[in-house]
Amino acid sequence: MKEIIRTLKPYIPEKPAAAVKKRLGVERLVRLSANENPYGTSPLVREAILSYVTHNDANYYPDGNATDLRLKLAEYWKVLPEQLVIGVGLDEVIAMVNKTLISAGDSIVVSVPAFSEYALNGLVEGAEIREVQADFETGHYDFSALVKAVDETTRLVWICNPNNPTGTYESVEDIRKFVAAVPKETLVIVDEAYIDFVTSVAVPTARALLDEFPNVAIMRTFSKAYGLANYRVGYMMTPLELANYMQTIRLPYNLNTLSQVAAEAAFEDQAFLRRTVSQNAEERAKWESLFDELGIHYYKSEANFIFFTVSDAEGLADAWLKEGYQVRRGQREGWLRLTIPMAQDGDVMRSVLIKYMGERSAS
Q1: What's the rounded Cα separation, in Å, for the pair 243 and 239?
Q2: Taking each helix axis from N to C terminus, what angle separates 240-249 and 89-101, rounded to the nearest 10 degrees?
Q3: How far apart are CA 278 and CA 325, in angstroms?
Q4: Which of 26, 41, 75, 225 could anchor a disulfide with 324, C-beta 3.0 to 4.6 Å?
């Protein structure tokens, strides 16, 4: 066994809803701790899946190249089909990147707090993880400090945009300046898992940087705004040479046919995506308005979640849980991450929050 494995803490997924409901004695549990899409999945996905299973058995392997999905994505993003690396969620893509690029003694630079898989996969391959603290007041990246953390050993820099768990969005121009300041041998990966939820700018994606720099890659997922978390489809747009190397270690037939069919159908239904983004933005504004009113410190979010702190955060999380609402704990002491719920659930949760804050101020 690798010695590093003995020291690592695994990613801990959410407990099954049925088990939590049984423990709490509630009839309904709304899981707002994993940034899933509360609005469900496009009905076109259901139709496509049912059509496939009606007319096909499961005795043949899937298309190992995910050809139809690959061609649709390549046409949309104006990249070569061969520039796409498609994985079982972005988790697999992250693992493939590290297996391809990282050797013992290399370094990886991340802004923290960050998605834990960036560091975990790097550590498995023997990398040194250099953490740069985000601005505490705003949650934004400290790009000048990130530049200083990069040296000749740095193979990867991760930029999650909007960032998980802070929800903050970094401008394409700020990312462009950062990429220009680091060695071309250092790959800068922009993880745009939550980019569809950005509403402050017309074109939030850093896709243009792929054409400007030889050391930029961009990741996307169907798990969030498209509502396909259960089907596990993620992909990366990357320089052709890197994509070719990564394909050599990709597991054959990694993406099953149902996942491919689901992603193709979801990608076709841009109306569902627009409704999801619009509803999320409307609810996000309600939460931020109440946080402002109550004097709660939070980070301005462009994602489908909000990161905030209150006195006795665990107590608030417990109060919501008693009402059947589960939020994310443990990403920073005293802070909670709330996946933005649907309107009716938001109304209930905000009432609980107002009561909680009132009781705290009275005590």
Answers
A1: 6
A2: 100
A3: 22
A4: 26
Rounded CA-CA distance 153/156 in Å is 9
Alpha carbons 62 and 253: distance in angstroms, whole number? 6
How would you classify the pairing of strands 216-221 and 154-160? unpaired
DSSP string computed for 167-229: -----HHHHHHHHHHS-TTSEEEEE-TTGGG--SSS----TTHHHH-TTEEEEEESSSTT--T
pLDDT tens track for 19-64: 766 676 777 899 999 999 999 999 999 999 999 999 999 999 999 9
55: part of which helix (H) or strand (E)?
helix 43-55
Beta strand 107-112 pairing with 154-160: parallel
CA–CA dist 323, 345 (Å, integer): 10
Which amino acid is present at 120? L
First-to-last CA distance in the chain? Answer: 53
Task: Encode pLDDT of 121-163 as tens digits.
Answer: 999 999 999 999 999 999 999 999 999 999 999 999 999 999 9
Under 8 Å between Cβ of 146 and 132: yes
Give 278-345 as a 3 state SS string. Answer: HHHHHHHHHHHHHHHHHCCEECCCCCCEEEEECCCHHHHHHHHHHCCEEEECCCCCCEEEEECCCHHH
Which residue, among 114, 247, 135, has the nearest Cα to 193 in the 3D structure? 114
The helix-helix angle for 43-55 and 257-268 (nearest 10°) equals 140
DSSP string computed for 2-52: -GGGGGPPPP-PPPPHHHHHHHHT-S--EEESS---TT---HHHHHHHHHH
User: For residue 230, which phi and psi values (nearest 5 degrees)?
Assistant: -75, -20
* pLDDT beyond 70 at 14: no
Whole-number Cα distances in Å, 172 to 102, 161, 187, 209, 325: 26, 10, 16, 8, 35
Angle ∠(350,356,358) on CA atoms, nearest 5: 105
For residue 107, how far is the Cα from the chain centroid? Answer: 22
Cα–Cα distance, 216 to 207 (Å, whole number): 9
301 and 139 in contact (C-beta within 8 Å)? no
